[in-house]
Write a structure and sequence with these properties.
Purple Acid Phosphatase, chain A, domain 2; Calcineurin-like_PHP; alpha/beta; 6-stranded mixed β-sheet; 7 helices; metal-binding; Metallo-depent_PP-like
């Protein structure tokens, strides 16, 4: 091979490497800005027949992310789902660089679609700006369900909707399992034995054993960011409070009689991008099944 051929070969290799890099960057950009809508049907004989087909849009971990002007791309997908209720499970702001406006653009648009029920995440607990955000949420008509419960009525039947404030508001250390003990006590004081079906909004999926212990039927959570980098056939690489190769990162899980839905969330925090892990909007349809 002469010198000219060697130079040509090097040029071809560099061009191919550049093309591959550009394709990779486009794929990563698309994978961080293209919202995936996941449809989940929850079937249970305990769901009241009058709430058959009841639709919940589950939103989590916005982290100041913006999807079009005034969140128009995200709001479009929410409207298309035609929800009866919108559940937000925390971290709509990011404590490292809080931007309340991006969160409120979502809230002010979504509240026109369906009632919003909100619980906090760790970033609301960490952010000084949460006091201002909370005031705006309440003024907009959002129901803040931190450590509280409501009954969702349909005719003569109801489901109990329970919310937990993020543990970081009150517990700064978990050396002796203080978080689990505190959450367990809160749920014992809120869970109604009269309700036929109980839905819990809680930012933290890793506390599923406590939720199951308290006879929660369905839990909606976030926090794990889908494991940040999703490895084919393995799953997520890392998640807050679960470490490497976390167990609960996306989709539907079952522990005993409790079903857990974990949203991959919409934005990023400490790690500024995702790989193989698109932002997610979860659409849940409740379905009554007859007891056999």
């Amino acid at each position: 091979m002469n010198k000219s051929d060697t130079i040509k070969k090097r040029i071809v290799i560099r061009v191919l490497a550049l093309v591959c890099l550009i394709v990779l960057l486009i794929w990563i950009y698309w994978g961080n800005n293209s919202i995936e809508v996941s449809q989940l049907r929850i079937e249970d004989k305990l769901i009241p027949e009058s709430l058959n087909g009841f639709t919940i849009v589950h939103i989590s971990d916005l982290h100041n992310k913006e999807f079009g002007k005034q969140q128009e791309n995200l709001l479009k997908k929410i409207k298309e789902a035609k929800p009866d209720l919108i559940a937000i499970t925390g971290d709509i702001i990011d404590s490292r660089s809080t931007d309340i406006k991006k969160a409120l653009d979502l809230i002010e648009g979504a509240i026109k679609v369906a009632p919003i029920y909100f619980v906090t995440g760790n970033h609301e607990a960490w952010a000084e700006e949460y006091k201002d955000l909370k005031k705006h949420l309440e003024q907009t008509g959002v129901i803040i369900l931190d450590d509280n419960m409501v009954n969702i009525l349909e005719g003569n039947t109801a489901i109990q909707l329970i919310g937990l404030a993020d543990p970081d508001f009150t517990v700064k250390s978990d050396l002796l399992n203080e978080v689990k003990a505190m959450v367990n006590t809160k749920l014992q004081n809120m869970v109604s034995t009269e309700a036929s079906y109980r839905i819990l909004l809680s930012h933290r999926p890793e506390l599923i054993d406590v939720y199951e212990k308290n006879s929660i039927n369905l839990v909606l959570s976030g926090h794990a960011h889908g494991g940040q980098f999703r490895i084919p056939f393995i799953g997520g690489l890392i998640a807050p409070d679960q470490g490497f190769f976390p167990k609960y990162t996306e989709g539907l899980y079952r522990v005993g009689e409790t079903k857990l839905i974990v949203s991959r969330g919409l934005g990023n925090s400490i790690i500024p991008f995702r790989i193989n892990n698109r932002p997610e909007l979860v659409v849940i349809t409740l379905t009554n099944i007859k007891e056999k």
